[in-house]
Amino acid sequence: MSHSPTLTNYDNHANEIALDELSQELYKLGYQGQIIFGLLIFLTTIPPLPLYSTLMVLCGYTFGVWEGFVVSYIASLTGAIVVFIVSRTLLRDVITKRFVHPIIAETKCT
């Protein structure tokens, strides 16, 4: 099943326009825009979403290489730390039951 080239090109172009408009609006907000970008990156870090890498690149495009790097680095690192802590504490039993062999889980959990 193939997609129509014009439909695909139109969809991609519409997405590019929407991302560019988002970029311009967040740039106008200054530090508030950086905080909003950081929150968006943080939220997409928790569940692995395809939008994560797009937001990282768009952050650099919007604020420049170094400012975009700092914003995206802090947001993604914070998100990764939160995911690690939640998985090690609140979701430990669920993860252990799902991914560890029953004999190993029994010896490690006791």
Topology overview:
Elements: H1 5-28, H2 31-45, H3 51-63, H4 65-88, H5 92-99, H6 102-109
How big a fraction of the residues is strand?
under 5%
Rg, nearest Å: 19 Å
Strand and helix order: HHHHHH
List the total number of helices.
Answer: 6
* Average pLDDT taken over every residue: 82
Shape: elongated
Descriptive labels:
110 residues, disordered N terminus, 0% strand, mainly alpha
Structural summary, described in words:
- By secondary structure, the chain is mainly alpha-helical.
- It has one domain (5-109).
- Helices cover 84% and strands 0% of the residues.
- The protein is built from 6 helices and no strands.
- It is elongated, with a radius of gyration of 19 Å.
- The N and C termini lie far apart (53 Å).
- Mean pLDDT is 82; it is low at 1-7.
Summarize the structure.
With 110 residues, the protein is mainly α. The chain has helices at 5-28, 31-45, 51-63, 65-88, 92-99, 102-109. It has one domain (5-109).
